[in-house]
Specification:
By secondary structure, the protein is mainly alpha-helical. The chain has a domain of 69 residues. Helix content is 62%, strand content 4%. The chain has a two-stranded antiparallel sheet with strand order 1-2. α1 packs antiparallel against α2.
Length: 99
C-alpha cells in the first residue's frame, strides 16, 4: 500500500479525500460498515483455510489486500470522524468560559 497523501482519506493509485460536509456520525457509520466488511472477508478466509481445500494463492493475496484496504478505509473514516467531533466540541462554549 502506498503512503497516504497529506489529508487524504486513502491513497491507492490516486488519493481520495473525505467530503467536508459529512456529519461525523455518518463517518462513524461508514467506518463500522467498512470494518465489518474486512472482518467478514478475514472470517471467510479463516473458515476456508481451515478446510482441506486447494486455494489459489493469487486469489488469497487479493482477498487479504482487499481486507487491508477496507481496514485502512475504516480507520481513516474513524479518524476523520474523531477530528470533526473535536472541532465541534471546540466550538461549544463550556461552563466558566468567557463570552
Amino acid at each position: 500500500m502506498k503512503k497516504r497523501a497529506q489529508g487524504a482519506w486513502i491513497t491507492l493509485n490516486a488519493s481520495y479525500y473525505c467530503a467536508p460536509v459529512g456529519h461525523p456520525l455518518k463517518l462513524v457509520d461508514d467506518a463500522s460498515l467498512l470494518l465489518d466488511g474486512a472482518r467478514g472477508i478475514t472470517q471467510s478466509l479463516a473458515d476456508l483455510l481451515s478446510q482441506d481445500v486447494d486455494i489459489n494463492p493469487d486469489d488469497l493475496a487479493k482477498a487479504l489486500w482487499a481486507a487491508s484496504v477496507l481496514t485502512e478505509m475504516g480507520q481513516s473514516s474513524a479518524e476523520a470522524a474523531y477530528a470533526r467531533i473535536c472541532k465541534m466540541r471546540n466550538r461549544i462554549p463550556h461552563d466558566g468560559d468567557e463570552k
